[in-house]
Amino acid sequence: MQPNNYATQPPIPSLKALERRDQFKLRRFALSPVVYPHLIWNLKMSSPTKTELPKVPTPLKNELAQFDSSKMKHAETLEKNQLPSKDDVQQEKVHNSMLTGVEGFERSKLKSTETQEKGVLPNADDVVQEKIHQNIVSGVETFDKNALHHTETKEKAVLPSTEIIQQEKGHQKLVQGIENFDTSNLKHAETQEKNPLPTKEAIALEKSAA
């Protein structure tokens, strides 16, 4: 029968015991005759003087002195752990299944394929249009300018007829008459507005119609 080794092993110290032991070691190290003077000197050198300390404004100092902590209300912090909805869980499952499918994919299961390129032949209309286009291009490229005949452009001035001349003369006379019109020859006239009153017969007819 094998001896029980667990009984002979020392108990595992707790976290608090380890923290106390470390603090005790640090305190002993700080209070040692070698380290303590240097520690005090560093504290004196690093600590600011009274003049170097930031000054608190007087209004803020008065508010802090008159502050009543009894007026504060007690509040409790509520930690909410929002659970995912059904849609979130479903999307997470789909995402995980896709990842596992991609990671565990075996390329050895793929089948080899060959790409077949098929050339589409033109129909009869395409062939005819292509021939026409080629004939036009070749005709323009092989065109002989020497076969052209020299021509001169004749500009003919069309003279107006007698009727058009008479109309133009009449129009010019009318314009000249308006431009040279003498307004001093006009006589002064007054417009008289007459409002004829209805006769007795018209009044009688109006009454009988009503």
Describe the model.
With 210 residues, the protein is mainly alpha-helical. It is built from eight helices and no strands. The protein starts with a helix and ends with a helix. It comes from Caerostris extrusa. It is found in: Cytoplasm, Cytoskeleton. Belongs to the thymosin beta family. Pfam families: Thymosin.
Strand content: under 5%
Assembly of the depicted chains = single chain
Q: Main sheet, how many strands, which sense, barrel?
A: none
Low-confidence stretches: 1-7
Distance between the termini: 144 Å
Radius of gyration over alpha carbons? 60 Å
Output the number of helix runs.
8
Could you give the order of the helices and strands?
Answer: HHHHHHHH
Principal-axis shape: flat
* SS class: mainly alpha
Helix content: 40-55%
Protein name: Thymosin beta
Pfam family, one: Thymosin
GO biological process, one term: actin filament organization
Organism: Caerostris extrusa (Bark spider)
Keywords, separated by commas or semicolons:
210 residues; mainly alpha; 0% strand; cytoplasm
Could you give a short description of this structure?
The chain has 210 residues and is mainly α.
Layout of secondary structure:
Layout: H1 5-8, H2 15-30, H3 35-46, H4 58-65, H5 86-103, H6 124-141, H7 162-179, H8 200-209
